[in-house]
Amino acid sequence: MDSIQQQFTDMLADKGITLDERQLQQFEAYYEELITWNEKMNLTGITERDQVYTKHFYDSLTLTFYTDMGKVSSLADIGSGAGFPGIPLKIAFPHLKLRIIDSLNKRIKFLQSVVDRLGLEGVELIHGRAEEWGRKEGYRDAHDLVTARAVARLAVLNEFCLPFVKPGGTFAAMKGSDLTEEIKESRRSLGLLKGKLDQVHHFQLPVEQSDRHIVLIEKEAATPAKYPRKAGTPLKEPLI
């Protein structure tokens, strides 16, 4: 184990997360795939190895500091991009049944390459729009935990993500800077989509001290029939 992985494991150990040798190998293979594919397509502007470990891998796992992953069986990651936070969560918690939905097929092909190389099982990669898949049986109102990382404003994310959450489950929005305004403007969408604001956690990433927020929203009842609206509408006409 080199110094970058040592720092990564030490930071996680401080939060009660331990990784075995195979998991560390999977993270390193993920990094290698990310850099290789990033030369062909735009996956991330962060390519320095130590930065990837902190700003992508560790940042993805911060969700586990505020949720009991042992009680989560099914996880959906909406608009996952290069696989964050879904793939790091799957590596660290192999029992998770993971679904990733992304609208760009090139990214899905990259993620399939990652899943194959890492030997991950119980992962479904879906090329499509959240608004369409959120209406499908077996996907709608079906997941213990749904997450999205820096995809859109909260009022829009609620309509993208809450339809996938089972009643009693949780939607976790992983965000950067101050959320005061976003939370205010998301109240209407929360009410319409049967979500209830549970907790907002504010912390700083280690090493570089950049601000992060995790918004936990509880799903109180099944998604009303009219939501999500057709593809493109939530972004053009947010529920605010």
What does this structure look like?
It contains ten helices and seven strands. The chain is 38% helix and 22% strand. Strands 3-2-1-4-5-7-6 form a seven-stranded mixed beta sheet, with helices on both faces. Helix 2 packs antiparallel against helix 5. 41% of the residues are buried. The protein is an alpha/beta fold and 240 residues long.
Notable features of this structure?
7-stranded mixed β-sheet; 22% strand; 240 residues; alpha/beta
Q: Share of helix among residues?
A: 25-40%
What is the strand tally? 7
Strand order of the largest sheet: 3-2-1-4-5-7-6
Mean of pLDDT: 96
- Tally of contiguous helical segments: 10
Largest sheet: 7 strands, mixed
Question: Distance between termini?
Answer: 49 Å
Q: Choose one word for the global shape.
A: globular
Radius of gyration: 17 Å
Structural class: alpha/beta
Pattern of helices and strands? HHHEHEHEHEHEHHEEH
Q: Bin the strand percentage.
A: 15-25%
Uncertain segments of ≥5 residues (pLDDT<50)? none
